[in-house]
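input
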Amino acid sequence: MYHLYSRRSEYKMEKSMSMQRRDFLKTLGTITVAGGLAGCAESSTSNEQSSLDKIFSFADNKVPMNAANLCPMPSAISKAIAKYNDELDVDMSGPNRTRIMALKNQARNDIAMQIGVSGDEVAIVRNTSEANNIVVQGISLNNQDEVLLWDQNHPSNKVAWKVRASRMNCHLRHISIPPDTNSIDEVVEIFANAIGKKTKVVSFTHISNITGFRLPAKEICRAIKKKNNDIHIHVDGAQTWGVVDVNLLDMGCDSFSGSAHKWYMGPREVGLLVVKKHNQHKIWPGVVSVPWGNEAEASVVGARKYEALGQRDDSAIAALAETVKFHNQITTAGIDKQAKSIANQLRQKLIDIDVPFVSPHNSNFTSNVIILSAPQETRMELINNILNDAGIILAPPGGLRLSPHIYNTPDHVNRVVDAVNKHRNFLG
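output
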C-alpha cells in the first residue's frame, strides 16, 4: 500500500469520474443529438449548457471548434493528470512510478481492442508527427524503390519523405485526385493504377487537414494489396483516431498513426503508432534509449521499441488510461455518430448561405473537417473577427477550417454561421 494513495481516495475519484461520464451521456443525448439525431430543437437550454460545462471547462467566449489541431480534455482527464503529477512530486520512488506507469500498458491494451489490433502492435509515442517520422525514417528502402504519396498529406507525411529522399535516395511520386471525382471507385482506381513494379510504400492521410477530403482507406488498402501484398501501407490517422470508428484489422493497413490531443480528447504530447507484427522488423526506431535495453536487439516486446525516448510525461501517459475509459463509455461509434451530426448541421447551414468551400460536399468524401475558401492575406483577420463576434476558435490551414466535435452545440453552429455570413467579404 502506498501511503499517499489510499483506496478511499481511489474510490472517490473513480466514483466522481463515473458520475461525470453518466452526466456526459445525458448531455450528449440532449444537446448534440438535438440538432440531427433526434430531430429536436436546434438550441440548447441554459441547463443543458450547464451540464456540458461539468464535462468540459472551456469558457463560452472561447469555444473550441478546432479539433483538427487541439481538443479540450474533459475536466476529469485534466484532474487525473494533475493528480498523478502531485503523487509523483510527493513520492518519486520506483514502486510509485511503476504503479502509475502500469496505466500505460492498460491504456495500450484497451486502445488496441478499440482499433482491432494487439497490444504488442501499439506504441505510445508523442504525437502523429513523431509516429509518421518513425515510419518515414525507419523503413528500409534503396535508391530503386518508389514511395507513393497523396498530395494532400500532412507535412509530417509529405515533407518528411522529401527530407528522407534527399539524403537517402528513393523515388517519390504524388497522387492527385481531381476535384470533380464523384465515386469511391474512381479514387480507388487512381491509387491502384499508380502502383508500379518499384513501389514499396504507399503513405496517405486518411482525412486531409487542408481540404477535409476523406479517403476510402479500406478500399484503397484492399486494391493495393491485391496488386502487391508486399507493399507497405501507412495511414496517417490524425484526423481519424477518436472521431471515426476505425478497425485496423478491417482497414488492412500495415501501420497507422494518431494523436491523443486531437479528436481523442486526451492528454497532450501523447500519440499513437501502430505497426503490424509482420512489419515490425522492417521499421527501426529513430531513437534508442530507455527502455530499449543494453543490447543491439530490443529487450522490449513488439512495437514498444518505438517508445524508447527516455523520460516522458508520466502523468499525461497515465491519464491516457482514463481517456480510454471515457471513450469506452460513450463508444467510438457513438462519438462518430454525434460528431457527424453536429458537423452535418454546420456544413448544411454554410451551404445554405452560399459561401465558397474547399472541402467536398459529396457524402462519399466528407468529414468533420470543414474548410471554406479564404485568401491567405485575409484569413487570420477573419478568424479573429469570428472569435470576437461569436467566441468560436477556428484555424487557418487550407482556408477557414472548422472542425467541430461532440462538445459543440447547435448554438455554437448558429453563432459561427452568423459570424461567417457577417464577414463573408473575407472569403474567396
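quick obs: Residues 125 and 271 are 5 Å apart (CA to CA).
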